[in-house]
Amino acid sequence: MYDYLIVGAGLYGAVFAHEAALAGNKVKIIEKRNHIGGNIYTEEIEGIHVHKYGAHIFHTNDSEVWTYIQQFATFNRFTNSPIANFKGEIYNLPFNMNTFNKLWNVSTPNEAMSIIETQREHLNGKIPINLEEQAISLVGTDIYKKLIKGYTEKQWGRSCQELPPFIIKRLPVRFTYDNNYFNDKFQGIPIGGYTKIIEKMLEHPNIEVYLDTDYFEDRKNFNTEANKIIYTGMIDQFFEYKYGHLEYRSLDFKTDILDIENYQGNAVINYTDKETPYTRVIEHKHFEFGQQDKTVITYEFPKEWEVGSEPYYPINDEKNANLYKKYYKLAQTEKKVHFGGRLGLYKYFDMHQIIKASLYAFKKLNN
Ligand code: FAD
Ligand code: UDP
Question: Does residue 212 carry a catalytic annotation?
Fold first, then answer.
């Protein structure tokens, strides 16, 4: 008998397992993929740490989380500064004075603000009710049309008028010449890759990890194996889609090894027009200032989730929020099971939020 059965060896499950084992609990983790790490998994190809499930940049404002993660890795000084490519025109992200200068040939914050002011006049100061209104009220119509609309509608497969405003508020808007994608105090890439972090978290005699093991293949038996279950898979699947499917966005990744040193000159380039079928191209070596002779790049093609594909992004619009509430209520009645992580809570969480939530859950459950 284990104290905890953890479904999913992603970041949430691994942090929980680590804390539980340190506190003397016996932990069994089952993971349906053939590797640990969930979506932060990195794999070495040509001496380069490849982010197998999309670019992952660690960033946080929370010193506790930052101190916590340092136990498992040393972070480099990488600062995410993606580039937007709109039909061959290059712009700096996030939206800042470099972007405004390139777009409008303005050089002062006042000039940029006054153009944005004119471009959002038609909204009359109204509180934005969808992503389109939110975007225009932040940066005006030119940027919305060139850098947001196409990218967002490819990424989410929905019109910007149907999407919630909060998604675009993830991106800073700055009236300084600063291309740092995040406002957080701490940021970097773990030297040696993310997989090593998870390996370290799970390296404890109290933890057993079983790969290629799907909870739903034998849930009755798994349920009898532990006193408590930490479930980090899809919440709607847990309840056999009783109220219907929650919607997710999935991705296809296409990775190429190129016999050149430097393909695109930056770790992340976003293709913001609607015609290019991929949203971004990652050149992995630039996350670690790599000097290898070859390079590895990955194209990210968004698609709607269907049974059999990976559910990368919860779609936190109103329709899905209402459906999630019903599953959440059901989850409250499961006394033995705790739901956590991006899929268990159906929330667009970044890594630092996952760590925080997992640490909090452990403290609450383990007393
Ligand atoms: P997951 O990593 O999804 O782990 C859940 C695990 O559970 C998976 O391994 C899954 O296989 C397993 N599982 C599910 N169902 C079952 C089952 N039935 N039986 C057994 N195992 C099961 N965050 C950042 O902070 N910075 C970034 O730059 C960033 N970039 C991102 C880019 C992309 C493309 C994506 C998709 C996410 C990004 N994130 C980023 C978010 C980050 O990936 C998540 O916050 C984090 O990985 C979530 O961890 P998790 O453990 O909740 O989920
Ligand atoms: N976004 C955009 N243009 C860009 C980059 C982002 O319109 O060039 C919007 C898009 O809607 C995206 C959201 O901002 O889904 C959040 O971007 P982020 O880079 O945080 O997305 P993630 O890395 O989580 O996929």
Answer: no
